[in-house]
Amino acid sequence: MEIWSDVVCPWCYIGKRRFEKALADFPHADRVEVVWRSFQLDPSAPDRPVETVAEHLGRKYGGGPEAGRSMIERTSALAAQEGMSWRQAESLRVGTLDAHRLLHAAGELRGELKEALLHAYFAEAQNVADHETLTRIATSVGLDEVQVKDVLTSDRYADEVEADVRQAAAYGATGVPFFVFDQRFGVSGAQPVATFRQVLDRAWAAREPGIEVLGGDSADDQACGPDGCPI
Amino acid sequence: MEIWSDVVCPWCYIGKRRFEKALADFPHADRVEVVWRSFQLDPSAPDRPVETVAEHLGRKYGGGPEAGRSMIERTSALAAQEGMSWRQAESLRVGTLDAHRLLHAAGELRGELKEALLHAYFAEAQNVADHETLTRIATSVGLDEVQVKDVLTSDRYADEVEADVRQAAAYGATGVPFFVFDQRFGVSGAQPVATFRQVLDRAWAAREPGIEVLGGDSADDQACGPDGCPI
Question: Which residue in B118, B222, B227, B231 has the most chain A C-beta atoms within 10 A of its own C-beta, making it the best mutation to test that interface?
């Protein structure tokens, strides 16, 4: 399954915890592969921060930083119900393209890096657009420092990020988190744990039992197997 | 789509060319994503070569190196029809786990590395188990030398290789190349170009038009979108 999310998206982090709780109780959890996909919620956000999220919200929806902080407080209360600490009121509004490029570079460590970036942003109010901060976070989960710097000083993996964003649009997703099971069932938003469990059950029941083999007669196949490569 | 293959598998390389020809003429080629999967045809092959492929074939099927060379010559003739040069008679029998681990480490460069490894083995009779040779091939397509050495001196990505092999077995594949479209249609062996085209057409026609969205009422979703993160 695939999960589209952004590093600075509060519902993505809360939804991640709820989904993880559902998955922990799912009897076939060891057969579920999670692939994290990129989504840029606010592509116009600057790489060098000029304001906090609270200031930005207050400016966008009116009421000033105080109103912004009060919106964040309501999210914090829900995050606390999931056992998460939340310092988003201090978080800076920043772009996430570089963070997403690193996620694509992370290979087998993508899941660990995703969690570390969300934790850094929401629980520690770190600047996840700053290259030194990104390098520290990425190496803390095991990425190679030289490779991280190569990615950050280039535009590598930008195409992969864009392809993810395009795929989300093709699925009709306008927001995140967005969960897709077997390229077949979608779930939008930080749904309750019970809803995620229902969808896991449904997707499991509906999974394809196997594949249909097409093409020539297998006796004539030009293939290599345990007995060699017949011609 | 996914293609299972091994670096030392002649039908895999010939099948790759035939599939590429079919794909080049396929009108929706830009919508087809190819993911290379690992398969170890001969896991007991040594990392330090002790014989050529011709010697191994002659020992396994009888007739000595001469018989082995004559088997390879017949494959060479078919490879020549695809415009490929073929020096497999000089190739060494070696294990491919390290080559596959590097392929998993290659990220966006996996396709380029796959072609480079097959070319090195079949067209240039290079030892694709030797770490210096692997480093040279991997860096020639753009991988970072430090990262390559880190992978080769560790056992990183061995789990990913094993997961690929297990998935092939779950699909019922006993040999390679093995092509799977949309986790739904399979093709075994180096089929003719026309067969690959038929399967591409069939898989395209049968592709899912979209996904079914499950879960709560979208008005109540806790999701972030272009208009913010409503609570």
Answer: B222
